[in-house]
Amino acid sequence: MKFLHIISLYSVFLWATPLFAQAKYDVKKVNENVYILTELWEGNANGNLGMVIGKDQVLLINSMMMNSASSLEKEIQKITDLPITYVLNSDSDPYNHHANTYFANKGATIVSHYNMKYSTAYHDILFKDSISIPIGDEVVTAYHTPSHTLDHIDVHLEKSNVLFMSDGFKSNWLTYTGPNGLEGVVTGIDKAISLSDEHTIIVSGNTSKNPRFYFGNKDQLITNKKVYIEFAKRVAQLYEKGLHAEEMSLDAKLNDIVKDLEAYPNLKPFLIYHIQELLEVDFSKDFTLTPNELTAYVGVYKLSDTRVIEIVFEEGKLFARQEGVFYFELKPINKNTFDFKGPTSDDHLKFYLSSDETIYSLTPILEKKGSWSNMVTQGEYRKTISI
To answer: Binning pLDDT at 50, 70 and 90, where does residue 364 land?
Structure first.
């Protein structure tokens, strides 16, 4: 899992916006109440967000990055002078929430999935399964999906027939599946298909530089689902043959599966990272622990300065979380070592067991120059509460 830094650089290459330049937008008017704004980024991608206008208020679907917030606000003011009263966040990826405080300071209420409380994102209202917000004649319904992250939501505008899927789908390339793997992203796509017809506009977060591919449709959902499944099957076949990710990325059959996606010519060099994520999440073998053994790790672990890490057991899985910082599924390597499941480099938790195998503390082991080393306070967290 040593590819997080490369992925981070890849993300910056794709999606970074100039620090001081005025952001530019392509605006699609769906109807009098709904607009899709495509922020024109440097690099190989652009970024979508949504706007729903009511009788006396505006709801935004994602706030984007802080450095483009004033530009976004000016763009919105070209369309309406009504106040922005709600911002919905698709997930904890920064471009979905980075400017939350900008709009909150101007009176907006920030609405996110419950698990966003374990991220750095500012929020006001949290929900677990779904939430519906009436805005004028439209009802904006956000619902949790297992795609991409543990806090991901899709946003459905039934009357306007628009579905915002953010990182759960890309109209022109593969999205990173996240800790729930292939099953998670396919489940999210299946839900979207069930809500769609031949006229539904499917809006991804990261999108193409080509306006033809800014948005998707139901047919593309069905096509991409097939691509994900066939891609995973081929990775499984190559994994059984003992090939490494780099060797797999050169496989002709694997490349044939994705070659018709619009971004393939530009993003072919990054195919290896999608392979590595599948190998990490769906194919690498876990160290086997029974549910009873896993529950022994559950509890509240406290650092001397009152910071805590919670270990919870839900739906047969073990998770680590720290409010305002992180939420990860844990992947057991052995009784002492649990990896953060997904593309998170070599970061992991080390548990300490007494001679009678009672778990009494944990320590985050983080790469010195990794992103989590700047966010997670390191040290020995002593177990204070067993649940």
So the answer is: very high
Q: Which residues pair with 337 in a beta bridge?
A: 350
β-pair partners for 48 = 38
Interatomic CA distance for residues 145 and 129, integer angstroms: 9
Q: What does each C-alpha distance from 26 to 48, 72, 225, 243 come to in angstroms? A: 9, 11, 28, 43
Pairing of β 317-322 and β 153-157: unpaired
121 neighbors 112 (Cβ within 8 angstroms): yes
The gap from C-alpha 241 to its chain's centroid, in whole angstroms, comes to 31
> What average pLDDT does range 294-304 have in this prediction?
95
> Which residue has 């450095």 as its token pair?
67
CA separation (Å) from 350 to 179, 251, 297, 319, 381?
A: 20, 37, 11, 14, 10
CA distance 338 to 44: 35
SS3 374: helix
The DSSP-derived string for 94-162 is HHHHTTHHHHHTTTPEEEEEGGGGGSS---SEEESSEEEEEETTEEEEEEE-SSSSTT-EEEEETTTTE
Minimum mean pLDDT range among 16-25, 32-41, 235-244, 279-288: 16-25
- pTM for this predicted structure: 0.92
Tokens of 114: 């419950």
Q: Are 64 and 72 in contact (CB under 8 A)?
A: yes
Cα torsion through 152, 157, 160, 162, rounded to 10: 10
Length of the chain: 387
Q: Which whole-number Å values give the CA distances from 260 to 173, 178, 265, 270, 304, in the listed order?
A: 9, 23, 9, 16, 54
